[in-house]
Amino acid sequence: MGLRPAKTIRRTGTQAWTRISQRRPRKSFVKGAPRPKVRQYDMGVDKRFDFEVDLVAQVPINLRDNAIEAARQMCNKWVEKNLLANYFFKVMHYPHYVIREHSALGVAGSDRISKGMKLAFGRPKGRMAPIRKGDVVFRARCYTAGVPIIKQGFDRALRKMSGLYKIRVCDISKDASNLAKSVAGVAMKKREEAKPVAEAAAAATPAAEKGKGAAAPAAAAEKGKAAAPAKEEKKK
């Protein structure tokens, strides 16, 4: 049987507890769950950009992993084709909820078998991500010229997902907090922290050498003074 319509799992709050333990697989509440279909979460180059574009959910909804992956590919291919490496694109949600289904039969009397007991567990069939109202589904960073391209990419991604969304654009060129969280910001911070240490070490080295050079003549002068009285005593 193929994929069921997205409306079967679209509503939030109806999914029972689904836990998968990575450290202790035997303790997992769900066993044999399929792997998420989202293959990549960070795309592009993470560096300092001027604008941040978010795709924000307007209603709570459950998104299947295949819908997230299809939307990601639609958006990323369009943006990569037009902006090359001058962007950073990130999927903000991981599909950790397990979808459970009872396989329906196509024979006589199948309605009695397929209905089963109320809220039966079912077999794991896929993954989904619970999205709340106001959550950011996709986030992209780019320069000023790339904002229209990112918006077009998000419009293409919306064709693959259910729900209502809006596109939010923020100017982060002067926002230090967004820069500090990026890989480029962390590297910049490390370089700035290393500068004073290197400068202090470079300043201390010539001073130490000068001190050694000045100490040598002083020590020689002291030795000469101490040797002079000794010679006078011998003459006497």
Q: Can you give keywords for this protein?
A:
alpha+beta; Aldehyde Oxidoreductase, domain 3; 3-stranded antiparallel sheet; 8 strands; 41% helix; extended
How is this structure best described in words?
The protein is an alpha+beta fold and 236 residues long. It is built from 5 helices and 8 strands, in the order E-E-E-H-E-E-H-E-E-H-E-H-H. It has helices at residues 65-83, 110-115, 147-158, 176-181, 183-235, and strands at residues 42-44, 51-57, 61-64, 87-91, 97-101, 123-131, 136-142, 165-171. The protein has a 5-stranded antiparallel β-sheet with strand order 1-4-7-2-8, with helices on one face. Strands 3-6-5 form a 3-stranded antiparallel β-sheet. Helix 1 (65-83) runs antiparallel to helix 3 (147-158). It is extended.
Largest β sheet strand count, sense and barrel closure:
5 strands, antiparallel
CATH topology of the domain at 6-102 and 118-174: Aldehyde Oxidoreductase, domain 3
**Total strand count, please?**
8
Please work out how many helical segments DSSP would assign.
5
Q: What integer value in Å does the Rg equal?
A: 33 Å
Give average pLDDT, whole number. 78
Q: Assign the structural class, choosing from mainly alpha, mainly beta, alpha/beta, alpha+beta, or little secondary structure.
A: alpha+beta
Portion of residues in helices? 40-55%
* Beta-strand proportion: 15-25%
The helix-strand sequence is EEEHEEHEEHEHH
What gross morphology would you assign? extended
Which CATH-level-2 architecture of the domain at 6-102 and 118-174?
A: Alpha-Beta Complex
- First-residue to last-residue Cα separation: 120 Å
CATH class category label of the domain at 6-102 and 118-174: Alpha Beta
Strand order of the largest sheet: 1-4-7-2-8
Low-confidence stretches: none
Question: What is the fourth-level CATH superfamily of the domain at 6-102 and 118-174?
Answer: Ribosomal protein L16/L10
